[in-house]
């Protein structure tokens, strides 16, 4: 550990006193000359684990390569190129002009729930947030991992201490703070005491990336955007032109970063958002397991967070895919100060195409949605032969009148758990056709027959059943 610091001092003294040259960054990387290489990787924000791997590979390569092909500290690292980004659109700043239909089927009516199930979920484990513990020496490594971490710890300490001494942190400093947090437990605790200038925070889930948007004011917009993407199973933290490369997958990286920001001391958020990006190309439910990591981390947090307004997009995957959990709002709310929270805004991710446009939905015969939490979208029910619902009100009757049966038999039957109210039937249909009984007499009661004016749509209505035919 002390060899590195002594070397820094000696090199500086040698250079200043002209007693000999310091090791330049363009010298070949060797077992003896590698600290400049490590420092350069820190400056490039390549995590110490990856820096160690590349360092050992560079030394081995230099032992084989001729002198004119030697790797130096400034030799660029090679990484895979990025895939095309998804379209830039903010689900909050650009609300959809058409209200999403949100009725759906039960799992048995989807046909194959696995076809729309979210994939690549991440799993919480106890040490997920903790920086890598001290690594044991390996005889196979030409330079030990802990030596690389020692250099990173020194550089990270210098960087973050300067922010602490100045006492003023900007949004632009936050990505570097996040990078340094993961170097060691010592740095993690140190930067955890820094007061961050965050007034608004929003986490946005895309098809193949996650974004964290930050603002230091209550004004519209988010000046800081941190993008998380994956590459060969590892995560990248992208902040403008800067790219931070980490060992964690991008979802875990985003979750831990979000937790770090939420537990910032003296944090008072005017607005906190958890959004799912609208994307017409998605054929499955979006993976929201990043929220599972966040709520598990928050569960161990002492004290409650000051949040004035929370915006939350709900994925209904758990309603239609067995053994899934996608509603984390109750767990999030448990971590907010009840006397500080003023507003809760909830939206539902538009899953209409996932169900209504599948062949399974179009070819299904029966629909069972006898659950008050599932809305009834009669516009997409007309092809079923039997529809089971919990209740039918006046609005349901009017929508049924608008949606003629489209199946081969030209009829469908709606059965209800709760008895129909004769007053609802009378009020909903009285101006649209004729009953077989006079609505103004005591005889007006179930069973009833109703015929729509001109179109010959016929309702046979009983207290717990409606048959619609043409």
UniProtKB/TrEMBL annotation:
Comp. bias (Acidic residues): 82-92
Protein name, entry field: DUF38 domain-containing protein
BP GO annotations: innate immune response
Sequence segments annotated as region (Disordered): 65-113
Residues covered by the DUF38 domain: 316-393
Domain of life (superkingdom): Eukaryota
Source organism (scientific name): Caenorhabditis nigoni
A Pfam family that the UniProt record links to this protein: FTH
Stored InterPro entries: DUF38/FTH_CAE_spp (IPR002900), FB224 (IPR040161)
